[in-house]
Design brief:
By secondary structure, the protein is of the alpha+beta class. It has a single domain, classed as Glutaredoxin (3-Layer(aba) Sandwich), CATH 3.40.30.10. Helix content is 24%, strand content 25%. The longest helix has 17 residues. The N and C termini lie far apart (35 Å). The relative contact order is 0.20. Keywords: Oxidoreductase. This is Thioredoxin peroxidase. Thiol-specific peroxidase that catalyzes the reduction of hydrogen peroxide and organic hydroperoxides to water and alcohols, respectively. Plays a role in cell protection against oxidative stress by detoxifying peroxides. Belongs to the peroxiredoxin family. AhpC/Prx1 subfamily.
């Protein structure tokens, strides 16, 4: 089910923020102040995820220029996030990454945003079981300053996002919200008046 044009699901969860673990992280701190680009990814220390995290970190100033905070989320623990941030890049770590990384160990955030791979079911004896991989798909959400989801996309585990494409979606949204202009096919920010 799509969240487009709905309020982003609320949550409070542990997160790694600037290398430190915080217990009560929430997107509500951005309401009325910034757009939020929320990235779900499958696993720390995996093959594709570090490349996205590095690309996001390298693009933070571009997001900030567009009044957007970057926030990541996976189903790994906050301690694993911290270990990953403290691991050098040449060892598959993301040392130097500064944006918040949410720990969704209960898997409720990924589930509420519709990016939890797999589903709960019952076996033949009526016992709860999980079918599939209980980790997040690659989900991207752009949430406006009022807390409404204005863009969403989902990718399979092995397909990394293109960060310039996400920046283009953010530019298009801001152009519409600020200037009231629609964005035609192949629209680029430099086309804005």
């Amino acid at each position: 089910m799509s969240l487009l044009l709905q309020k982003a699901p609320k949550f409070t969860a542990p997160a790694l923020v600037n290398g430190e673990i915080v217990q009560n992280f929430s997107l509500e701190q951005y309401l009325g102040k910034q757009y939020v680009v929320l990235f779900f990814y499958p696993k720390d220390f995996s093959g594709v995820c570090p490349t996205e995290m590095w690309a996001l970190e390298e693009s933070l100033s571009a997001f900030a220029e567009k009044e957007a905070a970057v926030v990541a989320c996976s189903t790994d623990t906050e301690e694993v996030h911290q270990a990953w941030v403290n691991t050098p890049r040449d060892k598959n770590g993301i040392e130097g990454v500064t944006f918040p990384i949410i720990a969704d160990t209960a898997k409720t955030i990924a589930s509420n945003f519709g990016v939890l791979a797999g589903y709960g079911d019952l076996d033949d004896e009526g016992n709860a079981t999980f079918v599939g991989a209980p980790i997040a798909l690659r989900g991207t959400y752009i949430i406006n300053k009022e807390g409404t989801v204005m863009h969403e996309s989902h990718n399979f585990f092995t397909i990394a996002r293109n960060i310039p494409s996400v920046l283009r979606e953010l530019d298009a949204l801001r152009n519409f919200e600020v200037n009231g202009e629609i964005c035609l096919a192949n629209w680029k920010a430099e086309m804005a008046v």
